[in-house]
Each structure stands twice: as C-alpha cells, then as structure tokens.
C-alpha cells in the first residue's frame, strides 16, 4: 500500500467523526524514542467521546509505547497530545491521570504486597473516601472474582485475577477515558469473554470512552467502534471495526493465524 | 499426606532428591571447598602473628588455630547443607505459587499476631523498666546502668522507626540517615549555646531543620532508585559530617560543641538547690531523677514516632508510600504525585532523626562530628533491615539486639579465659554485626518480622467483608 493510501485512510477516519465534537483524545504526529531508537514515528490517532477504539499490531509495533506516551512516560519527542481540547503532551504523569484518564497497563502492575482492597483504595486515591463504597460495589459486581478476594495479597492472585484487579483499580478513579493494554493477555477464553463483556457494559451503560490495545484482534475489532493498525511505529490503517475485520490485509496478518509475520501496508523502515 | 510421610523419613531418602550417596558426596565436596577457601583466607590473616621481639618483629606460627577454623567451617557447612537438604526436599513436595511474593495471608497469620502482641509487650516493658531495674538492683542509683542502656536502645529504636518510614515504607534506600541525626543534635546544641533557647523550643526547631534538610536531600535524588540512591545518600551523610568538621566558626570543628544546657523538667532544673526539681517536689535530691526523666523523654519521643507512623500508614499518604515502594510507575498513573510523596517520606523520616538528635545532644551535653559517622547510619539501617523492612515491632527487637547485644558481650568476661588475656568481647561488635547480617540473609531474607500487615485491621475487615463479600469469607 502506498503512502497516499495511508493518507486516504486517515482522512476517512476524520470524516467518520467530523459530524460530532472534537475528539476526547487526539494524538498528532507523535514520535517517541527510546534513546536514539524511534518506537513511534509520527502517529496520528483520535478517540472520540463515548467510543471504543482499538489499536492492533504485532509484537514490538509500539502499541504499549503509544499508550504510555499518552501518560507522559516516556514522553513524546515530537507531536502533540490533546485531551478535552487541552494540550497534555508535557504534563507530568500524575497530572494527566488527574484529568480523568486511567489505565490498566501492560503487565498489570498491581501492588503485589498490598491486599486487593488496598490496591482498590490506591485506585481511588484521587477521590479518597468520597464514593469509595459505591465504586467498590460497582467493580465488585463487574468482577465477582475480585470481590471474593478482597483481602488476599494481590501478588498471590492468579494472572487472570490480577488482570481483573488492574482493570478494577483503574475503574476506581471514575475515569472518563480508560486505556487498556492487552486485557486478555494470558486469560482463558471464557474469562476473555467476561472481560470484553465488561468493557462493552462500561461503554454502553456508563458512557465510558475506551482505548483498547489488543493482540486478540478478532475480539477487539468486533467490540470496537473503530480500530487502528500499528506497524513499526506507524499507523498503517484505520477504519471501523467492521471495515478492518473485512480487510484482506488485516485478515492475513492478524486474524487467520497470520501471526506476527507480514504486516499489512508493509510500511517498514 | 505426602508431607507427614516426608517429615518422618530421612531427608536424603526422599523421592525427587538425588540418590543418597550422590547427594552426600556432593555435600562433602562442597564443605571441603568451603574449608579450602577458609584455608586460603586464613593463611595471610591468621597463620602468623607478628610479635615484637628483641630484634624487630618475630613471626609466631599459628597453624593449629588455622586447622581449628577450617575444621569448624567444614563441619558447619556440612551441617547447614544437611539441614537445607531436608528443608528443600520438603519444599519440593509442597507446591509453591510461582507468583507469590510471600505467604498467602488471607487471615492474619502467626507472624502478624506476634508482632501486634509483641509491640504491646515491648511498650509495657519499656514503660516499667526503671521500676524493674530498681527492684532488681536494689536501689535507684545502682539501676543507672540499665536505665542508661535503656536510653541508648530507645534512641536507636526511635532512629530505626524514623528511618523505617523512608526505607521500610517508601522503599527509598537511605545510607546517610545519620546526617539528620547530626542536624538535629547541632541545631539544639547551637541554638541553646548561642541564643540560650530552652530544649522545649529547640526540639521542634531541630525537627523542622532536619526535615528541611531531608527535603533538600530529597530533591536531587528524586529520580534515583536502589543502588544509585544509596550512593548519593551515603555521600550526603559524609558531606554533612565534613561540613561539621570544617566549618569551625559555627560548629566548633572536630572539637565539637560542649557544655550544652542539660534537660530541665519543663523549666525546672534537676539541681540540688532550692529551685531544683527535688526541692520543688519536696523529695530528696538524686542525680537519677534526671536520668529517669531522660529515659521517659526518649520513650515518649519514640512512641510518638511509632504512633505517627502507624497513623499515617492508614492514611492515603502512608498507602502511597507503600505503593511507591511496590511500583512507582503504577503509582503515577493512578494520579499520585510521586515527587511530593517521596519528599514527605524523606522530610518526615529526617524530622524524627532530628528529634532523636536533639535528644542525643541534651543527654550527652557534648557533641562532636565523631558521633555521626557512617557506621551510625549503617547500624540504623541494619536495625531496619534486620527488623524486616516496615515492621515496627521487628525494628524494636532488632534495636534491642543490635545495641543490647554488644553490651551483653561486655559481660562475657569468661571468654577472655578462652581467647587469652586482653580479649575485649565488645570489640567484636562489628563481627557480631556482620555475622548477624549473614545469618539473617540466609535464614530470614525478609527480616525478623517479614509479613506486612494490611493497613485495614481485622475489625474493619469484618465490617468490609460483611458489606461487600457475600460468600467466600467465613
Ligand atoms: N524501555 C524501553 N527501552 C528500549 N526500547 C524499548 C523500551 N520499551 C519498548 N522498547 C522497544 O520499543 C518497541 C515497541 O515496544 P512496545 O512495548 O510498545 O511494543 P508493543 O506493540 O506493545 O508489543 P507487544 O504486543 O509485544 O506488547 C519495541 O521494539 C521494544 O523493543
Ligand atoms: Mg505491549
């Protein structure tokens, strides 16, 4: 696919949202470097209010890097990130979180020696005790497994339980925008279904905006309103979930056991 | 069931371990290797003693001693391996959760209960020590040794608890804690000698100054962690000491500050004249009044440190410290200002160090930079680490062991019968220190009291369990 082709797709995405308000989160020309190595090379991406947007890509494409760049760690070297029309590119991480963005990061990063309950308290740091009981009730309803284990040390929970806890902890801050990095990683198919159902419910019932990074492209694209494909630090494709699911290149690379080999768009280098 | 069987069986015969003969051979080889290394170390260190003779130094060979040392190491290693073999075999049979960082403690386990009760016992003993010591030794004057020792131990308990905020809770390795102790001591000494301010005004000021210095140190090291942080804090401790030595005009240099005003009973001095404490109370004058007063003063200061720490642990700031220790990035993305969190930990820890320092100054009446060497930092850190990073009771018993232990050694005079005249056991304090560290790292790598107590206590847990947990909890 040519460079011109990419541009067409990006324009198409903008057209989809053109009718509404400006996007909740907007990433423009963002490049992120680890030392002198570029992990992101001019990424453009929008997440509109009330949307589920997914980002798919092979291992090492830069998905997690993009998610963390939104949080300012690592920081974007070029480009800008705006949230609710406000430039957050240079804000410190905690200040970004205070604007109503929460994440369940890659590798879960729960606090292992603290109990599940304390982890959830940490998630609610921004609000303190104000609506803690109410929110606790809510995440417990969403993840009954978390509820059963409130007083277990987080580090001793199974990988799947820790994943649920990471999402639950993120929800405790009542985010407007929730970033999820591979929530289905290492989970049994039934649990994956549970997590994806939970994401859908959060979006439908609470109107939460969700940005989802996933390896599980099929589920993610089915769930999402829109999706982006990241290859070697560049967005090569975007469109509605349906469009991407039907795209032969996406199918070949991410859906039919195509693995991490040939990437659509082939925009290497 | 497999477990009970394994307990009864000799370790080497357990399934899953190597064949008995092979295992034993390996252990013998290993022990022999240890003995060989010991021999190698002994040759330059022990084998010859230099004695001054009539014509220069005379070499006295001590090969017998070398043989004894190597033999002892061989036997000890052999025993250790045999014991470990048994334990490992038992462990292999019980599955261990791979991701577990420590015992799965849904309910408080024995360790947690011990430390809860233990702290109460410790406080009870500490409160009654002067009475106990008086009863045991017959009269107040002869209990002085014990009360002085108590003061010394409590000073270290307080320092340990203070440093515990930084190292144990917030997970910031600080090797220069003695700097704040020094700042506190000099604050009181200088304010009292130059401006004539009383101890009770200087105490909060000393804490404040030390806290400010804590922040000052905090700023440059905000981005550092682990070993880098340790190096910078170490340097900071040394810098403070060198400033104290070289800034002669203000600090008196290496000579230090002397004739620091003594502690008063809230303004009433402990003197024999009619304005004195004894006369005011209408009791007989006794120099011990001041000592007992100092004892209770440091006890109260230490308990305040403990109380504040325990309180903060349950507040958001305390939880943030602990979360910071676990995962800094996760903390930040939950909206926690890690800069402020770290600085408060440094400042608060330093402030308590400063309080302890001004107590030290008022007790000694004389201070010099010599009291604030790296060794002090190392001992305080050792107390925190031995106590089990973050456990208040663990720190208390570690302080008793670390400070009281060498005193115990002092009384083991009979050892000089074994090791010859001129053997001073208390000189082996550092050896003891090292041995204790090694032993701890082998047997209790997480410290004496290693189980972290959840900040939500049992009573509250019940309430929460009732409210949010329908099943799964009894
Ligand atoms: N801290 C780091 N230092 C140096 N290079 C890094 C660092 N983190 C990531 N990278 C590199 O940046 C690139 C993108 O990594 P990233 O973690 O964003 O990939 P990803 O798309 O999330 O992959 P995966 O699906 O495997 O999680 C990779 O080549 C990786 O090696
Ligand atoms: Mg990733």
Automatic annotation (TrEMBL), chain A:
Q: What keywords appear on the UniProt entry?
A: Amino-acid transport, ATP-binding, Nucleotide-binding, Transport
InterPro entries per the UniProt record, alphabetical: AAA+_ATPase, ABC_branched_ATPase_LivF/BraG, ABC_transporter-like_ATP-bd, ABC_transporter-like_CS, BCAA_Transport_ATP-bd_LivF, P-loop_NTPase
Q: Which PROSITE patterns match?
A: ABC_TRANSPORTER_1, ABC_TRANSPORTER_2
Q: Which GO terms describe its molecular function?
A: ATP binding
Superkingdom of origin:
Bacteria
In its keyword annotation, does this UniProt entry include Nucleotide-binding? Answer: yes
Does the keyword Membrane belong to this entry?
A: no
What positions does the domain ABC transporter occupy?
A: 25-257
Q: Which PANTHER family match?
A: HIGH-AFFINITY BRANCHED-CHAIN AMINO ACID TRANSPORT ATP-BINDING PROTEIN LIVF
Q: Which family does it belong to?
A: Belongs to the ABC transporter superfamily.
- Which protein are we looking at? Branched-chain amino acid transport system ATP-binding protein
Q: Which organism is it from?
A: Methylobacterium aerolatum
TrEMBL record, chain B:
Q: Where can this protein be found?
A: Cell membrane
Q: Which residues form a coiled coil?
A: none
Transmembrane found in the keyword field: yes
Superkingdom? Bacteria
Q: Does the keyword ATP-binding apply?
A: no
Q: How does it sit in the membrane?
A: Multi-pass membrane protein
Q: Name one Pfam family in it.
A: DUF3382
Q: What are the TM regions of this chain, as residue ranges?
A: 31-48, 60-79, 117-138, 144-163, 197-216, 228-247, 253-272, 293-312, 343-362, 374-406
| Major localisation | membrane
Which keywords describe this protein according to UniProt? Answer: Cell membrane, Membrane, Transmembrane, Transmembrane helix
Q: Where is the High-affinity branched-chain amino acid transport system permease LivHM N-terminal domain?
A: 28-127
Q: Which InterPro entries match?
A: ABC_transp_permease, LivHM_N, LivM-like
**PANTHER family membership:** HIGH-AFFINITY BRANCHED-CHAIN AMINO ACID TRANSPORT SYSTEM PERMEASE, HIGH-AFFINITY BRANCHED-CHAIN AMINO ACID TRANSPORT SYSTEM PERMEASE PROTEIN LIVM
**Listed name of the protein:** Branched-chain amino acid transport system permease protein
Species the sequence originates in = Methylobacterium aerolatum
């Amino acid at each position: 696919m040519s460079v011109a082709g990419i541009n067409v797709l990006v324009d198409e995405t903008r057209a989809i949202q053109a009718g509404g308000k400006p996007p909740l989160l907007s990433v423009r020309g963002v490049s992120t470097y680890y030392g002198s190595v570029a992990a992101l090379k001019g990424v453009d991406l929008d997440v509109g209010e009330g949307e589920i947007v997914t980002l798919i890509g092979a291992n090492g494409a830069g998905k997690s890097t993009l998610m963390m760049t939104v949080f300012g760690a690592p920081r974007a070297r070029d480009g800008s990130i705006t949230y609710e029309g406000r430039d957050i590119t240079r804000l410190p991480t905690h200040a970004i979180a205070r604007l109503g963005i929460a994440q369940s990061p890659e590798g879960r990063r729960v606090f292992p020696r603290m109990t599940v309950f304390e982890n959830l308290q940490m998630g609610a740091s921004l609000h303190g005790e104000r609506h803690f009981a109410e929110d606790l009730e809510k995440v417990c309803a969403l993840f009954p497994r978390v509820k059963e284990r409130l007083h277990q040390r987080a580090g001793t929970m199974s990988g799947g339980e820790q994943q649920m806890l990471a999402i639950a902890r993120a929800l405790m801050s009542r985010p407007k925008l929730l970033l999820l990095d591979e929530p289905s990683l290492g989970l049994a198919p039934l649990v994956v279904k549970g997590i994806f159902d939970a994401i859908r419910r959060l979006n439908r019932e609470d109107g939460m905006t969700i940005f989802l990074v996933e390896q599980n492209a099929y589920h993610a694209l089915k769930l999402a309103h829109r999706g982006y494909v990241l290859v070697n630090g560049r967005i090569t494709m975007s469109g509605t979930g349906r469009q991407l699911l039907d795209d032969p290149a996406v199918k070949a690379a991410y859906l039919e056991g195509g693995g991490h080999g040939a990437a659509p768009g082939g925009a290497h280098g | 069931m497999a477990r009970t069987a394994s307990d009864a069986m000799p370790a080497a015969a357990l399934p899953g371990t190597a064949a008995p003969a092979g295992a034993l051979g390996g252990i013998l080889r290993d022990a022999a290797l240890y003995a060989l290394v010991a021999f190698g170390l002994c040759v330059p260190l022990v084998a010859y003693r230099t004695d001054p003779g009539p014509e220069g130094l005379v070499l006295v060979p001590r090969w017998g001693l070398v043989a004894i040392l190597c033999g002892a190491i061989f036997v000890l290693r052999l025993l250790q391996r045999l014991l470990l073999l048994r334990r490992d075999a038992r462990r292999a049979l019980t599955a261990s959760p791979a991701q577990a960082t420590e015992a799965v403690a849904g309910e408080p386990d024995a360790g947690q209960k011990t430390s809860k009760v233990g702290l109460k016992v410790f406080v009870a003993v500490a409160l009654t020590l002067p009475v106990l010591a008086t009863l045991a030794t017959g009269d107040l004057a002869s209990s002085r040794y014990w009360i002085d020792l108590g003061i010394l131990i409590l000073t270290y308990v307080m320092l340990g608890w203070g440093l515990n905020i930084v190292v144990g809770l917030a997970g910031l390795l600080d090797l220069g804690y003695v700097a704040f102790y020094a700042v506190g001591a000099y604050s009181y000494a200088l304010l009292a000698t130059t401006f004539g301010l009383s101890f009770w005004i200087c105490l909060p000021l000393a804490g404040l100054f030390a806290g400010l210095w804590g922040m000052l140190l905090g700023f440059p090291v905000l981005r550092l962690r682990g070993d880098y942080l340790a190096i910078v804090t170490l340097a900071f401790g040394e810098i403070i000491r060198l400033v104290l030595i070289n800034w002669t005009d203000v600090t008196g240099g290496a000579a230090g500050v002397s004739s620091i005003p003594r502690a008063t009973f809230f303004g009433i001095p402990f003197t024999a004249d009619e304005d004195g404490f004894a006369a005011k109370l209408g009791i007989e004058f006794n120099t011990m009044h001041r000592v007992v007063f100092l004892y209770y003063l440091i006890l109260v200061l230490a308990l305040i440190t403990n109380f504040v720490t325990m309180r903060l642990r349950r507040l958001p700031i305390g939880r943030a410290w602990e979360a910071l220790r676990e995962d800094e990035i996760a903390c930040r993305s939950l909206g926690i200002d890690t800069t402020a969190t770290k600085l408060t930990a440094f400042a608060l820890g330093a402030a308590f160090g400063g309080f302890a320092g001004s107590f030290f100054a008022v007790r000694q009446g004389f201070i010099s930079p010599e009291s604030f060497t790296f060794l002090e930092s190392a001992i305080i850190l050792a107390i925190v680490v031995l106590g089990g990073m973050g456990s208040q009771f663990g720190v208390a018993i570690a302080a008793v062991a670390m400070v009281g232990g060498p005193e115990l050694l002092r009384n083991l005079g009979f050892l000089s019968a074994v090791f010859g005249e001129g053997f001073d056991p208390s000189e082996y304090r550092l050896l003891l220190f090292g041995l204790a560290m090694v032993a701890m790292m082998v047997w209790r790598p997480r410290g004496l009291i290693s189980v972290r107590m959840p900040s939500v206590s049992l009573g509250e847990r019940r309430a929460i369990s009732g409210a949010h947990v329908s099943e799964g909890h009894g």
